[in-house]
Amino acid sequence: MRKLASILSLLIVVGGCTVGPDYRRPTVDTPANWRVDEQEARKLADSEWWRQFNDPVLGNLVTTALRENKDLLIAAARIEEFAGRYGVVRADLFPQVGGAAGYTRERTTETGDNRLATGYKATTDTFSATLNAGWEIDLWGRIRRSTEAARAQLIASEEGRRAVILTLVGNVASAYINLRDLDRQLEISRNTAKSRGESYALFKERFAGGIISDLELSQNRSQYEEALASIPSLEKAITQQENGLSILLGRNPGPIPRGKNIDQLTLPAVVAGLPSDLLERRPDIRQAEQTLIAANARIGVAKAAYFPSISLTGAFGSASGDLGDLFKGSSKVWSYSAPVTMPIFTAGKIAGSVREAEAIRQQALLGYQQAIQNGFREVNDALADQQHTTRQLAAQKSQVDSLRQYAGIARLRYDNGYTDYLAVLDAERSLFNAELAYTQTQGNLYLALINLYKAMGGGWVDRAEQVSNPVVP
User: For residues 373 and 328, is the Cβ–Cβ distance under 8 A?
Assistant: First the structure.
């Protein structure tokens, strides 16, 4: 027993060794500053930015999506899955103890060459109760590396859920902005069609009275039909947008409530941040790093197969043919062993596993670097989009004002006989197209700011996560 105790002590000391590389965060080439310089407080990135639109309906839609969206519920269930896997792998670090009890009744033949000797019973009873224990001594860190990988996968699944939250909030806000943009375009088209319909009715009366020619009537009718033709496509787009937003809310396709129109919405404040902030905030980058940590740990798991595996097993209990004698000293049974296994020739199987693990780690490393670069690109794109769209919107606003004035003057000159109807036709058609383009650009500006918040990540994901009330460990 002393020798066994000494061996166990030595094994426990040696068990502190862990093969395989320890994880170190890779050096990342980060830009010194953004291509577009924005000087605003970074604390805005930690706020519930979707409430800055000052539309309670949008806030309610985001809350509903965070609690009922199916992708988010799937992501929460995935966390449960990886938490269970982590528990399974981690359990191998500790001894496994089990119990067993049994009763067996057996009868032996009394005839033929195998019959029992005189004095022995043909029927026997056996009662047993035992405790079994087993423990693999983690000499080379195989189990610890497996646990490290499982823990990283669990954290990666949590970051994956945060990435779903980030995308979901941005998509709901974008879908709502698109919906209000389409609503405004439909309103413009209907108002234009109504105005042109009244004008067409008047022109038909003038034509009947011989005041205008068939050419002028046809020109006026083409204007009216142009406005009418734009309405069905916008109505279809609105229906499809409502259906898509319903799915984001975790509901069947149906109508979506409206709040403020697109002209009444408030533009969220512009956020800014440093590259280092981006590295720490974005869930997809955090998830990619945890995937890299898991892949790095699996190299140690693969390399541990080169070394001996030592386990301790034992059993203790009682066995007796009489239930009353089961727990007497003479009925005790026990055993213990320390099996050792070691690979001698595997035809390159272990080397192949190590090579595979190292290749997977390299892929994870490149994926991590790619996620960082993509994050930088998305922030720069969103900042550039916001800046240039703001200038474009201001120019289009001036264009709409000028065309509205031009259309009024053209109509007045036509009514007084100073010009033909072609000038009115050109002015009103240009105004109609400019109004639609202005509304589209207005929506694009909101979308640019939404994309900027999505690209930055930030503390607002934590706030959204609190709203979702997930059932996670």
Answer: no
Q: Which amino acid is at 289?
A: E
Which pair of structure tokens corresponds to residue 237?
């787009």
pTM: 0.80
Q: Residue 382 in 3-state DSSP?
A: helix
Q: Report pLDDT for 112.
A: 61
Identify the structural domains of the chain with CATH numbers, from first to last.
Answer: 14-94+139-308+351-468 (1.20.1600.10)
Kindly state the DSSP code that residue 274 receives in the 8-state scheme: -
In angstroms, the CA 217 to CA 209 distance is 12
Helix (H) or strand (E) holding 196: helix 142-208
Distance, C-alpha 391 to centroid of its chain: 33
Give, in order, the Cα–Cα distances in Å from 31 to each of 72, 278, 279, 377: 33, 11, 12, 10
Q: Tell me, what's the pLDDT at 271? A: 57
Which value, in Å, is the radius of gyration of the alpha carbons in the chain? 38
Please give the residue that has the higher pLDDT: either 1 or 433.
433
Q: Alpha-carbon distance 224 to 198, whole Å?
A: 9
Other CB atoms closer than 10 Å to residue 397's CB: what's the count?
A: 14
Helices (H) and strands (E) in the chain, counts: 10, 5
Q: How far apart are CA 244 and CA 446, in angstroms?
A: 19
